Structures
1.
Amino acid sequence: DTAVSQTPKYLVTQMGNDKSIKCEQNLGHDTMYWYKQDSKKFLKIMFSYNNKELIINETVPNRFSPKSPDKAHLNLHINSLELGDSAVYFCASSPTLNSPLHFGNGTRLTVT
Amino acid sequence: AQRVTQPEKLLSVFKGAPVELKCNYSYSGSPELFWYVQYSRQRLQLLLRHISRESIKGFTADLNKGETSFHLKKPFAQEEDSAMYYCALHPSGNTPLVFGKGTRLSVIA
């Protein structure tokens, strides 16, 4: 009964490939997020969706495209992967934008 | 612009010693502040928030608006406290949580 689940847990792929990371939450929250944690453990917001609508889109290359088919899902698709995309990507959700976040376990992406 | 500063990347203390993880923020409004913790190979989780004024796992944090600080404290560190700690600021409106760069706490037996 994991609250925020991400798949896959690990993703190893070559430069230039396209990959997706899926996220689902069963908490009934309205808001979902993607954060990137780099090798120095710095956490940076990438996107936020509220009720399937994009509300925050930070300075992220347009190779990254979030998709929210419904309120419980926020997937992240990455085109033309680059070495610098290697990081841990965390999905999170919250009841509203102003509430504490519930994080998934993270997806460790390694681009070779 | 909102900013959260955690000046220490790494903090090592002996078991039983007091711990203070520093956090300073920059925000012109009334902030809402949090501490999140990430244990080894686990997800980030909320540790405490300033409006709750509670103690979780022996940790407390007091918001000091004069010093714009929200330091995390524990009187006696335990080995299981070893983790990454992130201070976070929630500005008002449709603005996401802003995280500090994190401090790795290492409690030595």
Note: The longest strand of chain B covers residues 83-90.
2.
Amino acid sequence: DAGVTQSPTHLIKTRGQQVTLRCSPISGHKSVSWYQQVLGQGPQFIFQYYEKEERGRGNFPDRFSARQFPNYSSELNVNALLLGDSALYLCASSPRVDEQYFGPGTRLTVT
Amino acid sequence: DQQVKQNSPSLSVQEGRISILNCDYTNSMFDYFLWYKKYPAEGPTFLISISSIKDKNEDGRFTVFLNKSAKHLSLHIVPSQPGDSAVYFCAADMYSGGGADGLTFGKGTHLIIQP
């Protein structure tokens, strides 16, 4: 079975630009969560979506938004990029609360 | 304020010996704890978990111990193998809250298994 897939793998953006990251969950998983991992830190929770509805949000500014589509794939959008947004963005899908399966991540560099 | 703390950034252990990774937490609302393993260029991989109603959970070479009164958990790997070299993250969840707050992770411990 295919695991969680994320695209793109890497990207470089300039301050002030906008970026969209994509995630496809494991087949049958209806919940998708997004995490930001800054170098030297553990992943930090951004959003959780279940059945296309936002169920939870971490302590991130409104520049971060997300959505989940009818096929359960998800997009994370970040507007007005700052240098501090440079990080590995991880998507995790889960069949239920206690098991989260992570994708390989998207490495975002903001210059 | 870090709610999940892994105070050892790195740990070096000889192959075949026991590896013990430690984790402390401050939020008493956490009731479910997980360990993830991460190789470079890959996402974290789930290893083992424990509910707050238990004090021990085993899965093969991996055992997690939970001491609720001390707000401390540890991951034991016996025997340690070269493929265990990776970064290990401790994570906590408020399971009873439906998990909508996401997992709270520590900063990770880089385990190095020496041949």
Note: Chain A touches chain B through 26 residues (CB under 8 Å).
